[in-house]
Amino acid sequence: MISLLIVDDHPVVRDGLRGMFESAPGFTVLGEAAGGVEGVAKAAALDPDVVLMDLRMPGGSGVDAIRELTRRGVRAKVLVLTTYDTDSDTLPAIEAGATGYLLKDAPREELFTAVRAAAEGRTVLSPAVASRLVSAVRAPARGNEPLSAREREVLALVAKGTSNREIARELFISEATVKTHLTHLYAKLGAKDRAAAVAVAYDRGILG
């Protein structure tokens, strides 16, 4: 019998996962948590075999929770179950100590198989996440990749204090596309926010 702790900020998701696992042979759900901080406390108290961990939660992020569980030496294996598969989500989660990473659109049998594998300490990655990790390993070191022409345009506007909405209007693209360019900029420059990206760009002579 594999014991589980479900950590997700959406009650409907928690209810669905609990029902799914409790109706399947070989699993038992010990408890639920609505955020990372609560998840760490319950994982330490309940001692589950596997923690199903969402990443973006108002009650403490999943990555911080994974990092804290690893620091405490909690024996539970963490299987990330989320809707996000961007580099900024997958890499930190794996680096923090997650045993596996699945997306919420995974079929139930795939999820059951992943939980069994995680309980045995085997790494499980969804195909999309696995390909991202391979690409990250093969890519140039972070902070040294050249910026595309469009990324330079976005960066120049950011340096002027232009908002995402104004950048979108200026370049005739959507705000979502602007955010995507910013995410890529941060990764390539090794920056965490707009101010840091501009500072790094000036330091390297990319701007000004």
UniProtKB/TrEMBL annotation:
The keyword DNA-binding applies. CDD domains: LuxR_C_like, REC_NarL-like. Keywords: DNA-binding, Phosphoprotein, Transcription, Transcription regulation. It comes from the Bacteria. Residues 3-119 form the Response regulatory domain. Residues 140-205 form the HTH luxR-type domain. The keyword Transcription regulation applies. The modification 4-aspartylphosphate is found at residue 54. This is Response regulator transcription factor. It comes from Streptomyces macrolidinus.
